[in-house]
Write the structure tokens for this entry.
Amino acid sequence: MSPHIFLVAGEESGDRLGAALIAAIKRRTKGQVHFSCVGGAHMAAEGVPSLFPLGDLAIIGFAAIPGSLPKILRRIREAADAVLSAQPDALVIIDSPEFTHRVAKRVRAKLPEVPIVDYVCPSVWAWRPGRARTMRAYVDHVLALLPFEPKVLAELGGPPCTFVGHPLVERIDDLRPKDLEKRLRLANPPLILVLPGSREGEIRRMAPVFGAAIARVIERAGPAEVIVPAVSRLADTVRKAVASWRVPARVVTEAEEKAEAFRSARAALSKSGTSTLELALAGVPMVAAYKVSLIEEVVGRLLLNGPSIILANLVLGENVVPEFLQRDCTPARLADALLPLLSDTPERQRQTQAFARLDTIMEVGNGNPSDRGATIVLDIVKQQHVKKREIPAMLQPSV
């Protein structure tokens, strides 16, 4: 009998991970597998349509939650009910812990025999470390994207965890420049990438500051080509935001256009998040920044811990990427930090030399992360099938 695996994601990045995991599981089972999901366009492209649109869940920040709470709670109930109705052989929750973990808790309460795998370790190393221990009650295994996470989760008393690798390493060839593009990185005018975010709230907060910073850089350093990568569903939002900038900027949404921009960029200005690790793997020196509302700042200062919030810095174990948060996130400060990265300076060299260590740290070339994840999920499904066969035998009267 083909295994049935149910995947639940809460936003586009999780949808991408889920789609890659589905494809890897299909390869390993020769297609002898059945899927259900709460996901998006990427899982749908793998032949697994979603229960409801992911756009319903794409929120960020504490301040955004209250207004969306009724919808989120309804979607949690609907997703959990769908899993309970399907009674799958395994549930894979993907990132977005405020949503997916609540689904997992409901499923564990009603179907305790269904193994639950958490794909993407919650950032317990940054805030709310107590979550690690509470996860043991409803998560059987964690698939970690970052190499330091299994050790941190073990120290905090969390569930078993395996580093499978970050999906970005599967795109190394797309992100890194070929010979011609290496020369383009040094050609004038330089190409500067600007990444204000992948959510509407982020774009609304970061785009005006980033636009003003880039204008200052161009005033002082001369002409530059400015490219702003955007997710397709927010392309109009991004175009509207950059239309008010004092410098022209080209918004790109197609995967190949984005990859080409990463391969040719001289430097970047990015909001904190996965984009900083993506730029680091591409070898693009950067300045990172982030702003949230006052209430989010107050809560964040109480809960956050660690030497940096920049993912590239955390993976490297060294604060090589300058970060500007809250009141430090100003056009003047961002421009001052970005300018040295446009030429051969100690600031630029420090970042490029640190980024060169990432292949070893991230185990680049040591297997495909999606394949590693698929192997663990299928092993867990197999173990569950063995348990199901053993239970009836245990109930037989002894002779």
Remarks:
- The first helix runs from residue 12 to 29.
- The longest strand covers residues 4-9.
- Residues 209 and 331 are 6 Å apart (CA to CA).
- The chain has two domains: 4-165+366-395, 172-361.
